[in-house]
Design goal:
By secondary structure, this protein is α+β, with helices and mostly antiparallel strands. Helix content is 22%, strand content 29%. The chain is built from 2 helices and 5 strands. It has a 5-stranded mixed barrel with strand order 1-2-3-5-4. Strand 1 and strand 2 form a beta hairpin. The longest helix is centred in the N-terminal third of the chain and has 17 residues. It starts with a helix and ends with a strand.
Length: 130
């Protein structure tokens, strides 16, 4: 009976962990990724949309020219490998404004209700694989 209870408790713990909100990436809990930059889209409004190789769901945005320049430097580096810190955009972030006000937006290839998650870039470090 005790073994069955422990198995049930373990299963419950795994289910709770699997159902935890993955989108809880905030100022207090920023996300960090190590990946290769696939593309950087400098926009006319001063923002940069960054796409990474192993994330085909989300995009990353910055309105900080220095971060955009670092992303461009990574594209032109030998590998494009970066470590990037990011978080969910918040209402007062410049990245959350409409495109005509200097913010970020990405058109989705799906229907009109389909949107691409966009995260605010906090830092980018170009990594050499030496």
């Amino acid at each position: 009976m005790k073994k069955k209870f422990l198995s049930l408790a373990l299963l419950l713990a795994v289910l709770v962990t699997a159902c935890s909100p993955a989108g809880n990436i905030s100022k207090r809990n920023p996300g960090v990724l190590r990946d290769y930059i696939f593309s950087v889209e400098p926009r006319n409004n001063g923002s940069y949309i960054i796409w990474v190789r192993n994330d085909d769901v989300a995009a990353y945005c910055t309105t900080d020219k220095a971060l955009g320049d670092t992303a461009m430097q990574a594209i032109h580096s030998r590998t494009g490998l970066i470590i990037m810190e990011y978080r969910n955009r918040e209402t007062l972030d410049k990245e959350s404004r409409s495109v005509d006000q200097g913010g970020c937006a990405v058109e989705s290839s799906g229907d009109k209700t389909d949107t691409t998650p966009i995260f605010k870039v906090l830092s980018i470090e170009v990594v050499s694989e030496e």
